[in-house]
Amino acid sequence: NKLIKLNPKDAATYYNLLFRLYDKSKHFDKAVEAGKEIIALSPENPNHHYNLAMIYFKKEDYPQALESLQKVLSLNSQFSQAYYNIGLIRFRQEKHEQAIEAFKQFTQLQPKNPDAYYNIGAGYLKLKKYEKALSPLQKAVELKPDYAVAHYNLGIAYYVLKDQFSANKEYEKLTSLDPQLAQKLKEIMEK
């Protein structure tokens, strides 16, 4: 605060440094305070709201994180990472339909991100909508052929849908990608 009084023009820079320092040192309550100060100085900057949201996310204060992420989107509806993190929060809250919708919005802005498609597929699996899980999981492995957990989930979806041939293909791919996941899928398929 003494530095800020000496040079008020640099207040945002000082608070930003404090914010980063508190974040890195896991002093999240102090990071929130610094983040709020930064926002007070520049309330129309979506990056500041996003950074604050990520601190709330780390604190597992999901209502506050969601509020900050919604503010980000009100300032910039093309801020893709806001949608992604809304999806992660909704997934952790077991609000899978809302998570799926957020990840779908993200993929409209970032269509080459395999993790988003994986998360959509995983959401459908949680909802036991196995048929709907196939397309996003297939897209995830198309974008990232060595995506072991996506192959595993595809194998489960195929198995539940009684497509033994496709489930076996996923098992075969997994044997070279992740033998432990392959074994786990094999055990499920043998039940």
Question: What report would you give on this structure?
Answer:
- The chain starts with a helix and ends with a helix.
- It is built from twelve helices and no strands.
- Helix 6 runs antiparallel to helix 7.
- It has helices spanning 2-6, 11-24, 28-41, 46-58, 62-75, 80-92, 96-109, 114-126, 130-143, 148-160, 164-177, 179-189.
- The radius of gyration is 21 Å and the shape is elongated.
Which series of helices and strands comes N to C? HHHHHHHHHHHH
Q: Hey, roughly how much beta strand do the residues contain?
A: under 5%
Give the overall shape. Answer: elongated
Average the pLDDT over all residues and give the rounded result.
91
How much helical structure, as a percent, in the residues?
over 70%
Largest sheet: none
Distance between the termini: 64 Å
Helix/strand structural class = mainly alpha
Number of continuous helical runs: 12
Q: Are there runs of 5+ residues with pLDDT below 50, and where?
A: 1-8
What does the radius of gyration come to?
Answer: 21 Å
| Count of DSSP strands | 0
Give a short synopsis of this structure:
By secondary structure, the protein is an all-alpha fold. It has helices spanning 2-6, 11-24, 28-41, 46-58, 62-75, 80-92, 96-109, 114-126, 130-143, 148-160, 164-177, 179-189.
